[in-house]
Amino acid sequence: MFMHMTFSVAIAGASGYAGGEMLRVLLAHPEARIGALTAHSNAGTPLGAHQPHLRSLAGRVLAATSTENLAGHDVVVLALPHGASGAIAAELAERGDDAIVVDLGADHRLVDPAAWEQFYGSEHAGTWPYGLPELLHPGESTATAQRAALAGTRRIAVPGCNVTAVTLGLQPGVAAGLIEPQDLVAVLANGYSGAGRSLKTHLLASEALGAVQPYAVGGTHRHIPEIAQNLRSAGAEAVSISFTPTLVPMARGILATSTARLVPGTDPATVREAWEQTYADEPFVHLLPEGQWPTTASTLGANTALVQVAVDEAAGRVVTVTAIDNLVKGTAGGALQSLNLALGLPETLGLPLDGVAP
Ligand SMILES: NC(=O)C1=CN([C@@H]2O[C@H](COP(=O)(O)OP(=O)(O)OC[C@H]3O[C@@H](n4cnc5c(N)ncnc54)[C@H](OP(=O)(O)O)[C@@H]3O)[C@@H](O)[C@H]2O)C=CC1
Ligand SMILES: CC(=O)N[C@@H](CCC(=O)OP(=O)(O)O)C(=O)O
């Protein structure tokens, strides 16, 4: 039994996809009380004009994203383009606001400022505790490692959605020393909502439907240093990953297929055991029974990651597939899971384990 701990929460960027999903999961959380909802170009317009599926607050008028409007809450969630969240977080801190700040954007995820500058081309905002409770650390169980870093924290850097999928797929093999972290390949099928509402307003349905399109090819994607950082945390000395995302005609979902060179002589049963042990007690990361493969459709609306692993003995490689809903386990659900830990609430409180199908 836990003590009730009602908290007020403001969402900056409530007109966007990530902000809208954060609001949806928070509306189902028994302890959350929705405070300010803010936007940028859409400030002054009703929430229902942008999030028509969120009926309970459809008439709420969006305020401008400013520290004045965001101050005075227990929790502030930043669902803003990278750069904007770093600036607002710094202003809130300067003002002395003592809210827990949850950044859904990239600004505070990377530890290495040089990696930030190389991939984002701007000054690094800083590093916050990383909001992936299941992240492995060598020699520590998942129950104690990243969760200990998140318990009671006042700042949470929520992982990139692709990063969550690839990290959860590969980290058991890295931590157990069964795969070569310098020979990794990941290819992802991504739904369009991952690109954000405002980023691709020019896209025509006639171009998107019926086509699969690669993007950020050739080692340029901003999630590469973040994946490498996670796999180093899981025990890799150095990481080399070829990472290729593709856009597929679906609204939500990520299917990440990652392969890695198997350490020669490793028994396939040992591989399965490593993945099984890693996720045996995880509430939201589920290794499927042998022979069943994850699909994005079975994660929609849920804070669930479905994982499978197999050994391709002829190729000498491990193949692991992870499916998530990019907006739930990949963003808002993962954020709320970490926020529950920060607040001392049960980690699973208010979070959907079951999805929507068909
Ligand atoms: N979509 C996804 O699956 C994921 C997104 N994220 C991250 O979440 C953040 C938001 O992404 P997403 O919701 O997809 O993007 P959207 O384009 O859907 O929404 C962006 C939001 O930010 C506001 N905004 C735009 N420009 C500015 C600015 N200069 N200053 C302040 N606010 C601004 C917009 O307001 P307005 O509508 O009024 O212009 C809108 O509310 C990003 O950092 C993204 O990388 C992280 C993981 C996954
Ligand atoms: C389909 C699509 O474009 N997806 C985005 C996911 C963005 C994301 O996870 O957000 P951050 O910018 O917060 O890292 C991408 O691959 O860049």
UniProtKB/TrEMBL annotation:
The keyword Signal does not apply. GO terms for cellular component: cytoplasm. Pathway: Amino-acid biosynthesis; L-arginine biosynthesis; N(2)-acetyl-L-ornithine from L-glutamate: step 3/4. GO terms for biological process: L-arginine biosynthetic process. Pfam families: Semialdhyde_dh, Semialdhyde_dhC_1. InterPro entries: AGPR, AGPR_AS, AGPR_dimerisation_dom, AGPR_type-1, NAD(P)-bd_dom_sf, Semialdehyde_DH_NAD-bd. Residues 8-143 form the Semialdehyde dehydrogenase NAD-binding domain. It is found in: Cytoplasm. Its main location: cytoplasm. Belongs to the NAGSA dehydrogenase family. Type 1 subfamily. Catalyzes the NADPH-dependent reduction of N-acetyl-5-glutamyl phosphate to yield N-acetyl-L-glutamate 5-semialdehyde. This is N-acetyl-gamma-glutamyl-phosphate reductase. It comes from Cellulomonas rhizosphaerae. The lineage of its organism: Bacteria, Bacillati, Actinomycetota, Actinomycetes, Micrococcales.
